[in-house]
Amino acid sequence: MSNPPNFIVFTDLDGTLLDHSNYSYKAASDALHTLHESNIPLILASSKTAVEISSIRAELGFDNCPAIVENGAGILPAGPLNIKSLDRTPYRKLIKIINDAPAELRCFYEGFSDWTADKISKVTGLPFEDATKSSQRQFSEPGLWKGDAETREQFVEYLNSCGVSYRHGGRFMTLSFGANKGIRVGEIINTYSNPQSRPLSLALGDAPNDVEMIQATDFGVIIPNAHGNQIPRLNGEETGKISRAQHAGPVGWNVSVLQFLNSPPTHQSKI
């Protein structure tokens, strides 16, 4: 890229840019407008699938930017999404490994591939249409573990032997071939850089699965999590590299992004 942007912003969605209760980004309108007017890339980074995140990205007006999907398991390129062209090869390979697990272990794991869209809707609370989009996976498999800790450890050992890793969030045991939001951040920053210039980067998130992303950028902002799944104190908070917003959701997001654009933090501060 011959003329990299001066800034680049990475953001989680639910509970960060999107309000936890109604999924609205209205309170962040001022900062979003400034990003548009200044041609600053906004990189969405979420556990959502490419199908889910592409419609949000288009609504926000950032179709010209890549996005990080399925918690960093993959990247959605810039541009309109052609659903028919989605490469689901990694997902099919992952499901085969899961299904080939010893029967006495496989019986305890129920993933999205085992469920209908209606079941996914009931388990996740997503509307049926959104549950359908969530089922169109490319890189990772969320699921529920029904066994005890000992059998789960055996299942994980089997998965690791096949090159599969897992993250256990607040509810789901999500399986993939590795990578996380932080790794993808580095890859995307490189695409916006050249030997003479590298954009200053900011990441915003509210949950533990955002930690790698927040630590991978020049500056990070921890958005308060109203549901109690808090990010512990991180290295960098004492220097101001990482700060904590005073308000949750898009309200805190709006203030933090505007402050970053107007006066990038260089010392300990509380955005």
TrEMBL record:
Signal peptide: none
Name of one Pfam family that matches: Hydrolase_3
One term of GO molecular function: hydrolase activity
Keywords from the named record: Hydrolase, Magnesium, Metal-binding
Keyword presence, Hydrolase: yes
Gene3D superfamilies hit by this protein: HAD superfamily/HAD-like, Putative mannosyl-3-phosphoglycerate phosphatase, domain 2
Classification via NCBIfam families: HAD-SF-IIB, HAD-SF-IIB-MPGP
PANTHER family named among the record's database cross-references: HAD SUPERFAMILY HYDROLASE-LIKE, TYPE 3 (PTHR10000:SF8), PHOSPHOSERINE PHOSPHATASE (PTHR10000)
Protein name listed in UniProt: HAD-IIB family hydrolase
Native organism taxonomy: Bacteria, Pseudomonadati, Pseudomonadota, Alphaproteobacteria, Hyphomonadales
